[in-house]
Structure formats: structure tokens, C-alpha cells
Amino acid sequence: MSKTHLELTGVDMSFDTPKGEFLALDNINLKIKKGEFVSLIGHSGCGKSTVLNIVAGLLQASKGGCVLDGHEVNSPGPERAVVFQHHALMPWLTVYENVELAVQQVFRKTMSKQERRDWINHNLELVNMTHAASKRPGEISGGMAQRVGIARALAMKPSVLLMDEPFGALDALTRAHLQDSLMDIQKDLNNTVIMITHDVDEAVLLSDRIIMMTNGPAATVGEDLRIDLPRPRNRVELADDPTYVHYRQEVLKFLYEKQRKLETIAPRRAAQAAEETSEKTEEAKAARA
Amino acid sequence: MNTLTTTSSPEQSTWLKSLPSRINDVEWGQATKQLLLPILGILIFLAFWHLTAPRIDTSLGAFPGPTQVWEQGGQLWQEHVNQRERADKFITMQEERNARILAKNPDAEVRIRDYPGAPTFIDQIGTSMITVLAGFVLATLIAVPLGIVFGLNKHFQAAVNPLIQVFKPVSPLAWLPLVTMVVSATYVSDDPMFEKSFLTSMITVTLCSLWPTLINTSVGVAAVSPDLVNVSRVLRLPFLTHVRKVVLPSSVPMIFTGLRVSLGIAWMVLIAAEMLAQSPGLGKFVWDEFQNGSSQSLSRIMVAVLTIGFIGFLLDRAMQVIQKKVAWNE
To answer: Which residue among A82, A92, A93 sits closest to B234, beta carbon to beta carbon?
Structure first.
């Protein structure tokens, strides 16, 4: 259980831009155990998605790398299934066919036709979407489509489930509902999950660990917070729980004090702000050291 | 005043009773918009045509009005029916004669000849339809796969883009002599499957009509949502499966928009090509009538013009129906 399942070592990511090289990620190191639910949180533009895409294999790190179960990751694959922010369902396929496309591809050789059919239905049941199996994504709500996106990812039997702001595009009530569903599913399947979020409550409620990222450019892991709250967790009960409030406070402090981001319109002031924050990062680093 | 109010109340009650029929009025209003107004438009056009046509004098007499054109339409149909009867008679006579010859001498070689009469207006319509569909199908078979390749590969697209931009605006009339020469030079066969004139018209149609489909397909393919491409990558779909299951369905709406434009162009180009090349078809009919220069020629050309327009309209409608069946966004 304590063995490292997924490991990122010295990951740098730089992009070529017309103005020269842009260093997005600087020396990311991360070890994740099997069955751990890890959230990546940080301000927009800090490279959370880049980290996730590197684990997914959709992007190649410029330096360093990612190892899953002793194998280096250098291309995408169904063992690292991704749940996208905007469901990414094929609009011309029905809900069932969308999951089928994944199951067909991943288990073509290992499952019989009947087994595959049962497996698709099982996953749709898991997210409570059996009733809409024959509908197209355009005919169901955003929250429902996101459920199907999760069902499709789970149907690949991934060893790591990667979620890129999975509930970011949903309204607050739907989001809460889906978070509860996800906790239920997670209780049974005990998947390793990496989830990107910018929602502090979501991160504390769902995660075993929260990785807080510093502001870009040259973003890196700022703080690593372990959430020791017993499961199952109940959002209403936790709202007054002192430990929960404390964790929440920690994340808020990091985001709005240590890594405060100034959104300015004037580029000069933006540059200044960036300098300030990078100074603060240095200070924070120095303080920790 | 008193009398007024007393008389108005029963009126009001009848108004209330007639409420359901008023809702029908709304439906009726929609029917008016969909059916009555177009008919009105056509009637006004016919009236305008009827009134102005006799005032335009040409060397072949006054410009034909709707009545003359209608008469000529009936005339052309009658000619077609008569021609068919003669052709049937010719065939039966030929068969009878051959049967007699064979009865006398079973080893005799019998000649079977086609009816030598000139093609009628209706035959020309058939020829044009077959030619345009053949040219359009060939254009589609070339443009869609090429468009997919261009759309998937940015380098390739950059390389061919100037060629597309240059060839796209070329008029069919410019292609025609070249196509004619190339077809005559290369398509040499003792027992040709197709007429040379058919090939020339068809290839000209193909060359002119493949561009919209090609461009729309490549744009549609290049615009496949990056999220969907990532899903395909995570699933490790093999290249051809990726094209078949993700790229193609995703670009179907764009492809169909292109196909509809292409078919419209194909039909316009065909008529021009037939006129210029004297290949059988509606274009040749128009040209022959023009050269013929009888007092009925203008009416007959006008029949052809209306027919061409109506067929173009039907072709587009047919594509629309197919699009509704195939495209997921309809």
C-alpha cells in the first residue's frame, strides 16, 4: 500500500513561443500511492492541466518524467483514463455508444460481446445514467453528460483516473451532487485519482491529499497537504467540523495570501505583480527551507 | 349608449365562443406564409412576364410569354411520346425480321441496331442527369479522401493550398478544350464503355465541382474538437479507426455543406460544357434550338431554362434530405 504507484520526477515543461522559451513547469516532484485521491489546486494558468496532461501522456515533459507502476509514461493510454472538463463525448453517438467506443477498444480481445455489453451497462448504472442510454449528448444536461464522461473513463478500468476540472463547468447544485456520486463510486472502486480543481471545498471534501501549486511561469509544487478526515464524508456535517475548517483555511491561505494573484489589465502592472509573486515564492521557499 | 352596450354583449360572447377558431387562424397564417405567399410570388412573376414579353422583339419574333412556353412544353413532351412509339415500332419490326431470318437459317448472323432517331428533350434531360451525377460522384470520391488527408496534415495543406486557390476559380470553359484533347488522346478503345462526349462532360464537371467539397472537408477535419482527438489518443485508436470513428463523423456537417455547393456548381457547369462541346444533354438542346432559329426556338429554350432551374432545385432538395438522414447535427 505504501509503495509508490505513480511518480513524477524533476518534471520541467517549456513551450516555444515567438518571444522565446516559456518555462511553464519547473521541477515538479510527486509520489502518489495506490488508491490515493489527490487534488491539484492553484490559480488559473499555473500549469495544473499541464501536469495532468503529462501524466496522461498527452504532453511530453521537456525534462524529467513520469513513471506508473515501473513503466515510463510517454504516450496516452486507457490505463490513465481522462475525464475532460467539457465531457468530450462524441456528439453523434448515443450515451451507450460513447461508453461502447471505449469498451470496444480496450476490451475487444479480453471480453466476449455479452461481457462487454454487461460492462457498459454496469458503468452506466454506476453513474445513474441507464435511463438515458439511447440519448445523444445534445439531448441531456451538462451534469448528465459529465456523468457519462466519468462512466466512459471508469469503463476503461484505469489504474489512474485523471480528472481535469471535471465539475468546473457545472452549476453549484449539480456539482455537489456529482461530488457525492464520485465519493460513493470511489468508496467501492478505490481508484487512484488525480483531480484538478480550483474549488477549495471540492478539494478538501474529496481528497486524501491536496497538492498546491505556485503561480506560473515556472510553477512548481508549493505545499502538499494531507487531509485526514474519516470517510464517508458528509458535506453538511463537515461544514462545522474544526479539522475540515482548518484544512480549508490552509488552502485558502496558500491561494490568497502566499500565492495571491493580481489580475490586472495593464501589462506593466501585471509584470510587476508577477515579479512580486515570484519574490514571494522565493520568500516562501526560503521560509520553508 | 344603453342600446350599444346591450348589443355589444352578445357579440362579445360569440367572440369568446369563436376563440378556438381564432387559434386555427394562427395555424392558417402559417399555412399562408408557407404556401400562399410563394404562389402569389409566382403569379406576379408570370403576370410581369406575360405583359413584358410581347414588347421585346427579337429577330426570331417576340420574346415568348408563359402561354407559348407552356404550349412548347406540351409539344416537346408530345414529340418525345411520338418518338418513343416510332422507336418501339422499329425495335419490334427489327425483332420480327430477325426472328424470320433465324427461322429460315438458324446460323444466320442477325444485326441488332439501335433506333437511329434523334434524342428528344426528355432524353437530353436523362443524359444530363446521368452525366452530372457521375461527375459529382467522382468529384466526391476524390475530394472527401483528399480533404481528410489535407485536414489531418498541416504541412500537406500548406503545400497544396496555393494550388487549390488557383484552380478553384477556373471556369469550365477553360478546362473543356484540354479535357477534350486529353480524353480523345488517352481513351482509345474499340468497344468503348462510355461515349467520349460523356467522359469529357463528366470530367469537366468533376474538375469544377470538387473544390467546395475538398475545402470544406479539410476545414471540417482540421476543426475536430481537440478534446475528441484526445479521447481518441487516450483510447489508442488506430489511425484508420480514428479517421472512421472520430474525424469523419465529426466533419460530416461541414462535408455536406460542401457537397451541396459542389452539386449546384456541377449542374451549372454541365450545361455550359454541353453547350460548348456539343455533347448530348440539355446544354446541347439549348444550343441546337438557338442554331435552329425557328419561330418556336425561343419558347423551347425557355422550357429548357425552366427545366434546368427546376432540376437544380430538386438536386439540392435531394441533398438536403440525405443530409438530414446522415448528419448528426440536423
So the answer is: A82
Residue numbers of chain B with a pLDDT score lower than 70: 1-26, 330
Evaluate whether the domain defined by A4-79+158-288 bears CATH number 3.40.50.40.
no
**pTM for the model:** 0.78
> What CATH number is given for B119-326 in this structure?
1.10.3720.10
What are the residue ranges spanned by the domains of chain A? 4-79+158-288
Q: Which of A58, A91, A92 sits opposite B233 (nearest CB)?
A: A58
Rounded Cα–Cα distance for residues B267 and B269 (Å): 5
User: Residue A262: what are its φ and ψ, rounded to 5°?
Assistant: -95, 115
Please say whether the dihedral angle defined by the alpha carbons of residues B304, B307, B308 and B309, taken in this order, is positive or negative. Answer: positive
ipTM of this complex prediction, to 2 decimal places: 0.83
What DSSP letter does each residue of A28-63 carry, written as one string? EEEEEETT-EEEEE--TTSSHHHHHHHHHTSS--SE
Question: B227-281: per-residue pLDDT in tens?
Answer: 999 999 999 999 999 999 999 999 999 999 999 999 999 999 999 999 988 888 9
Name the B residues in 32-71 with CB < 8 Å from any A CB.
none
Task: Give the contacts of B304 (CB within 8 A, at least 6 positions apart).
Answer: B121, B282, B285, B286, B289
